[in-house]
Task: structure prediction
Amino acid sequence: GGAFSGLAHPHNVNAFMPGASLTRSCAVIDVDGSLAALSLRERCLLVVGQTNWRTRAFPEAGVPQLKMSDGPAGLRGEGHGSSGTPGVSTPSGITLGSSWDPDLLGEIGDLLGTEARRKRAHVLLGPTVNLHRTPVGGRTFECYSEDPELTARLAERYVQGVQSHEVAVTVKHFVCNDTEIERLSVNVEVDERTLRETYLRPFERAVTRGGAWGVMSAYNRLDGDFCAENRRLLTDILRHEWGFDGYVVSDWFGVHEPVGAATAGLSLEMPAPVRVYGDRLLAAVEAGHVTEDAVESIARDVLTVIARTRADERSCDEPEESVDDPVERALTRRAAVAGTVLLRNEPVGDEGTGPCALPIDVGSLSTIAVIGPNATIDRSMGGGSASLTPLGHRTLLDALSDRLTDARSGATVVTEPGVRIDRLTPLVRRPQLRTPSDEPGLLVEYVNGLDWDGDTVASVVNRSTMVRFFGTTPDEVDATAFSARIRGSFLPELDGLHEFGVVSTGPVRAVVRSGGLTTTVVDDPEMLIPRTREFFGYGSEETVVSVECRAGEPVELDLRWATGQTSGFAALRLGVRAPDPADLFERAVRAAADADVALVVVGTNDEWETEGFDREFIELPGRQDELVEAVAAVNDRTVVVINAGSPVAIDWVDRERAPAAIVTSFFAGQEQAEAMVDVLLGDADPGGRLPVTYPRRLADTPAFLHHAPDHDSHGRATQRYAEGLFTGHRWYEARSIEPRFWFGHGLTYGATDWGDATIDRITAAEVVADSDPFVVTVPVSSVGERAAVEVVQGYVAAVDPVATRPPRVLATWSKLTLVPGAEATVELEFGFDALRRWDTATSSWIVDPGVYELVVARSSDPAAEHARLGVTIG
Ligand code: BGC
Result:
């Protein structure tokens, strides 16, 4: 076999990625000089945050502040309240994962590098390269894929795109932070081979090929040690094996004690206030528990990222900028299209002999019913640190109506929500809000200290009924202890009983006045209301009261609120649920029955899919399944758009009258609506393939039995990755479980013929490096009337090697677009990386001698195989 030591990785950053490897020597600030100018105590203070997003400057040593900003799908900046600086919102990770297009990820990274500069950030806190271990993961939407190789190749290019702007990434969360359950403390147990081949793989590639300048350690423990204090991870693997020479930042509050962290090689504790490094680190050095060398080394890491990102030339004190550039809009729209997966598309009309339901033929359309809870509200991102204030909000209804008008289609668009899926009372946005001086929005008056009746020190107009703070406030406000009075009015659009609800992380009193009557929504100055999982576990249960309102008659809102003890995070939300007609559901079905085409937009939203907790089920919330069935029963041109950030159960596909077409783009960012209309009307081909296996039911999924941690007698939780290497589609194939849709599945509006696959050679004495891969060639021709997007996928099936292997493992792929009549030759390369496995006996990567089959396929569905070519090694 062709073994080489893990310690001598061939893809060393500086050797292989000249473009992405600004070495320490070409830095602007003089790392050695600055280091020498810093005392030991200053070094201990350099390696902690000074604010939530920034490190401390040491002007005399020539060290500027370093600013970091979330997150993978756009730059949030340092905004506060709801006045976060608006920014470009790209498709979320899973949508980018659906693109299967590394070049596109390079473009998105490039755009985000530009955005980072506009937001004055030196570091973008992303990409998120954890895996879709289970569809219930609260951050599944944020991650690219269930598959390590797909994730790895996308991450590599994203990293290079961002860093081409001298903006650092932090590849996160290192490692095995694949779910949110007990996320701050859970211990993950995973066997070494699975760890190496699966969960570490994306990080490995982002570092060794992508040349990442930063990594973020995960919250969880791995084999007992917190990832932030795990020397094997942060030093042995990351630095010694992979040649990483960047900095490692803790996840926010995810580091626990100085000795373990400094010894492990954790470079920077975030955020402020300091809890672990700083003077505690100094004391640990003085007590002889941490060496001065260890402190020097982590301080050097921080200086190195400051130098690489030229933080001394780009001050983070400049104001953040919002830029709405049509070229960038076009890119995010193209990316959303590229990540749109056409799951099903059946012929309709004349007993199913007509054309397929999609694309919709605008010329013959007279009425289209746009139905469902997500049709008239923008649900284009998941919840948590990956969310941001987008440049704008567009709904599918808006986008479709405008496009039909532009196309001079006389078609009527009718809309009905049918059902509601809000978990909490819905937030109210600017158009329905007025400040006391009659501007759109709500007035927020800040008070320093926790007495909300104190003097106003700053006032701001908020865009919605949510305020959220993460360590930053207006300059006059003490970010660690402040209160606020929030005043203005809400403009009801309907007569009747409205529900007002409040969730708060701190003391709160909220009163509303409607028609001369005053109602208290909540009065909880002592924070006696129980806490729930809202707002990362700091939020109270929602209190809800009903208030009679009249359309157009302003309801006065008066909220008093103070920050509680929430380590820098504080939030308040007021929601209002307007009355629904009793026949909300039936109206939608009637509208569908009367229309030529029924478009049903179902899914979840950022209340169901968010950082902070996992889902409990994968069914669509509310009565959405019933809605789809009822609509499909009355309209055979029913098209379902699934707008959820991860797979959902869709049993209605098995019904006799199933919807003719199903399409999803998950949470596709700011251009989600326009991109979906491009696909629905056939202006673009849905370019995506599933980056995750779409299960029939949760109990079929690989981690189902091992998602919930076990607790020992001390209450310590351990999550066992007992499915081992059998993750994602490998599990379904190995267990003969038929998923709803296989990983890699996705349809095109075009049609292609794939010719005979051939291979350059069928034996190799050994395979030691990717420089001499097996090359499989497949001719593909476009034989339909429309352009076709194809993803030719290459899997490896091991026939007889000694070690256990999953039935097939994704090795490589090629994505191409062919206009009608065009032909192309696809080359798939299967090299060392495709054939290797981790050998625990020698702690190295080896290729076992033996027989392998190289599989060419349209998806991971065993029935979608195109060719199998046997090769022998050794
Ligand atoms: C998340 C990180 C994020 C950080 C800063 C944490 O809760 O896990 O992904 O970058 O917060 O917002």
